[in-house]
Amino acid sequence: MPSELSTDIVIVGAGVAGLWLNARLRALGYSTVLVENARLGGGQTFKAQGIIHGGAKYALHGALTGASEAIADMPRRWREALAGDGELDLSGVRLLSEAHYLWSPGTLAGNLTSFFASKAVRGRVDQVKGEQLPPALQDRAFKGKVYRLAELVVDVPSLVARLAELAGDGLLAGERIEPLNDQGRLAGLIVDGRAIRAQRVVLSAGEGTQALLTALGIEQPAMQRRPLHMVLAKGANLKPLYAHCLGGGPKPRITVTTHPGADGQWVWYLGGEIAEAEGVAREPAQQIAAAQKEIAHLLPWVDQSQMRWATLRVNRAEPAQSGLVRPDNAFLADQPGLLVGWPTKLALAPDFADRVIGALQRDGISPHTHAPLPELPKPALATPVWDELLP
Ligand code: FAD
Question: Which atom of ligand 1 is least distant from the CA of 209?
């Protein structure tokens, strides 16, 4: 039987939420253990497009209210962290794009009028033309309007690698998780037979949180899965593009991000409406055909003859929708001895950490002195999906 450990906070799930929280807590002097049962970042995090939303997308359909400052502040917080002078030092993390773009291929004036009138975008959106256009749109045949949003796009694998460095000796590969109860109270977890005593347990296991709650005999908070069917395209001639392409409706018709393959070629990663309901119902070959048709229509100058394609099915894990959930906040719920939540977006990992730290401070949980951790079995980093699916 491995020896018992003692720490301030034990976190389960090393996606962006658990890793960011872990780094923040360590920076505040808490001792932590972060348990992962598969690979670091290998859940939703490595499948994210990496856009650090500031809420502009929601302003398109009026869902962003004056009260929703959390998401509006995310680009600034990430920018400071990436520059090495924010709440975490992420100075080595690769920034894929300084901006995300909004691209209106036709005449969608009505849609854009309300968008530009909204508080969320005022002063933060500029129209770009000519050489300022994203490289993939710089073609004579291009028609439409493009706006630059003050939203970043980060390279998620390098982000996770940096957050794993900041985790120091606190990462633990562990599969079997049981509650450690003391006089009827949750006093930590038993991970693969090793007791880990902690002042608080935090569950940030994404889609795995539901099963963990069941294992702990807890019914709330309820979780929902939102399925997506993403498309990937790789080709030697692809140029980078980071943009929401507007359709007639409130949601972007396609959201394109571009990621570096291990062989140096760019990979387009397509989400947005194409990856939702109808896209989920399509078989992979039909989904690829639908994406090819969209690209031929929207970017007719792109040579598709040398492109390779793949699709990826993935669920977004979120709290079951209720009046409490807004797209612009992380979600955190309290249970005795336990905090449970979902950031709902990669961009909102700082907000998730704020909420946990706020709950700890409210409950008077401060850093204690613990024996140094022994060397623990470490989980490996995940592989980028573009390298897995389109090597
Ligand atoms: P996850 O990344 O899913 O991490 C959970 C971790 O817990 C995993 O590593 C998993 O292995 C581990 N785990 C599960 N069960 C257990 C267990 N029993 N014991 C131990 N460990 C366990 N957000 C944005 O802000 N911008 C974007 O551009 C964006 N694009 C997206 C694109 C797609 C296709 C998807 C699916 C999501 C996107 N998101 C985006 C949302 C974002 O990816 C998620 O909100 C975020 O990654 C969730 O992080 P997490 O740490 O909560 O969950």
Answer: 15
Question: Ligand 1 center to residue 269 CA distance, Å?
Answer: 17
Give the phi and the psi of residue 390 in degrees, each rounded to 5: -130, 65
User: Which amino acids bring their CB within 6 angstroms of ligand 1?
Assistant: 12-18, 35-38, 42-45, 47-51, 53, 177, 204-208, 212, 228, 230, 271, 314, 316, 342-347
CATH code for the structural domain at 4-45+159-224+323-383:
3.50.50.60
45 C-alpha to center of ligand 1: Å?
A: 4
Nearest CA to ligand 1 atom 46: 346
pLDDT in tens, the chain (391 residues): 578 999 999 999 999 999 999 999 999 999 999 999 999 999 999 999 999 988 776 665 555 454 456 788 899 999 999 999 999 999 999 999 999 998 888 655 545 655 655 555 555 677 888 999 999 999 998 888 888 988 999 999 999 999 999 999 999 999 999 999 999 899 999 999 999 999 999 999 999 999 999 999 899 999 999 999 999 999 988 999 999 998 777 678 899 999 999 999 999 999 999 999 999 999 999 999 999 999 999 999 999 998 999 999 999 999 997 655 556 789 999 998 899 999 999 999 999 999 999 999 999 999 998 889 999 999 999 999 999 999 9
Q: Where are the domains of the chain?
A: 4-45+159-224+323-383, 54-154+225-316
Biggest alpha carbon distance in the chain? 73
What's the 7 CA to ligand 1 centre distance in angstroms? Answer: 25
**Residue with CA at minimum distance from ligand 1 atom 45:** 345
Can you give the pTM of this predicted structure? 0.95
> Can you give the C-alpha Rg of the chain in angstroms?
22
How many other C-beta atoms can be found within 10 angstroms of the C-beta atom of residue 286? 14
Residue of 280, 291, 300, 294 whose CA lies nearest to 233 = 291
Q: How many residues does the chain have?
A: 391
For 54-154+225-316, CATH number? 3.30.9.10
Q: At what angle do helices 74-82 and 349-362 cross, to 10 degrees?
A: 100
Ligand 1 centroid to Cα of residue 228, in Å, is 13
